[in-house]
Write a structure and sequence with these properties.
Length: about 425
């Protein structure tokens, strides 16, 4: 009998397992064979992630080998660069080699008493009066007082079997390549690029995450098949002129592409008796930016704090007790931080014919308007999500509308007006 079983060893699940193993008997399960190799990735951890990552990891130069200094909201016309040194400390966060970070979280959880089972798929969940039974693909069973689903977009059948909704799911494609640090520093004057182009996707960004000796890239798809996504990424990296300056000298092995789902739009209820759904599995990903790292870390940290007194009091983990988690997530993310992403999703992705013109206007505004850049900087640096300023978002929205050509203003003002109400 475990106190807690966590299914899913991504950033959310491993962070939760690490924090919970300090006071509970924890089992961490994942269908991937992490004992053999954790897939390489590069992710951006803005400074607002820091409160949710213990210093021993944040200051680890293997897990976080590079400073995050500059981001680029790029359009076809402008580079909307945001640099920390314009407004304060130059570091606006850290770049993580996610596979290394995950391995260190797992190792520390095991040191604290956690058990791991990798290359193992849970095929059935059975509720009992005093526990939950998990049956794996080999017919073996585990029993737990509390089940935590942190399966990202790969475990919807399990959570549906327990009566939970599934968030909306979209297809993405990603590719990592090694390159010398000298070449990366020469090619890139930023560590993160967010680029919208409806010819690439009407549903999300094309991106670069620049690590130390490695580069991670990809885009959110529309309704392409996996083969079509792979072919499109190959054409983009080989022929798209707007990015060629960044990738000269870098080679790509398209046999290594990863194609999978990413989810957004939070489910209405994330807890039930003896069950919590965390992170992307619950749709805790921002609707416009597809920012899932902060949301996953917040989700894991909040859940670990809710669960601690319940473990210590030998609770039965009722939905009423676990419901504190839902309330905290609403206060930390849904009622403030997510509102900007929801409004932007509606404004940009909901107007496919004008997506390019709005995005061009936004990036040009970032180039020319210091206050707009400052407000983006403040979001990146924000340490207390409860203090997120929707007033700043409203100001940026009004300024953006004022920069649009007259014809766009006539056709888009109802959309802008509605976006202001999110």
């Amino acid at each position: 009998m475990y106190d807690v079983v966590v299914i899913g060893a991504g950033v959310t699940g491993t962070s939760f397992a690490y924090k919970t193993s300090k006071y509970a008997k924890v089992l961490l399960i994942d269908a991937k064979n992490y004992s053999k190799q954790i897939p390489k990735r590069v992710n951006i951890f803005a400074q607002h992630n820091k409160p949710y990552v213990d210093d021993m990891f944040w200051n680890d130069k293997e897990a976080f080998p590079k400073e995050f200094l500059t981001l680029n909201y790029k359009s076809e016309k402008s580079d909307g660069l945001i640099s920390g040194n314009e407004f304060g400390p130059p570091q606006v966060g850290r770049i993580t080699h996610t596979d290394v970070f995950l391995q260190k979280l797992i190792n520390k959880a095991v040191d604290q008493g956690a058990t791991t089972k990798f290359n193992e798929k849970i095929s059935k969940i059975i509720r009992h009066t005093d526990s939950i039974e998990l049956v794996n693909n080999k017919g073996e069973s585990y029993h737990t007082k509390l089940l935590v689903l942190a399966t990202g977009s790969y475990g919807f059948e399990l959570q549906k079997s327990l009566g939970f909704e599934a968030p909306d799911s979209f297809m993405g494609i990603y590719l990592i390549s090694n390159a010398s640090e000298e070449l990366l520093n020469e090619n890139f004057n930023f560590q993160y690029m967010f680029h919208l182009n409806p010819n690439i996707s009407k549903n999300g960004p094309f991106f670069f995450n620049v690590g130390k000796g490695r580069i991670f890239t990809g885009f959110m798809g529309d309704k392409e098949t996996p083969m079509e996504l792979k072919s499109k990424l190959e054409r983009i990296l080989n022929n798209y002129q707007k990015i060629q300056q960044y990738i000269k000298g870098i080679s790509w092995n398209f046999d290594n592409v990863v194609i999978g789902d990413i989810s957004k739009h939070p489910i209405s209820r994330m807890t039930a008796d003896r069950v919590i759904v965390l992170g992307e599995a619950a749709g805790l990903v921002t609707a416009f930016f597809y920012e899932g790292m902060l949301c996953g870390l917040v989700s894991a940290d909040t859940a670990s704090k809710v669960v601690k007194p319940l473990v210590e009091s030998n609770s039965n983990f009722s939905s009423a007790e676990l419901g504190i988690y839902d309330k905290e997530i609403a206060e930390l993310l849904l009622n403030g931080y997510f509102r900007n992403g929801n409004a932007c999703e509606y404004l940009f992705y909901g107007n496919q014919s004008s997506l390019k013109s709005i995005w061009n206007a936004y990036t040009e505004m970032l180039v020319n308007n210091k206050t707009a850049r400052k407000y983006v900087y403040e979001v990146i640096m924000l340490q207390d999500l409860k203090k997120y300023s929707t007033d700043n978002d409203r100001w940026v929205g009004e300024k953006l509308f004022s920069t649009l050509p007259t014809l766009n203003k006539i056709t888009l003002w109802p959309k802008f007006l509605k976006a202001m109400t999110f």
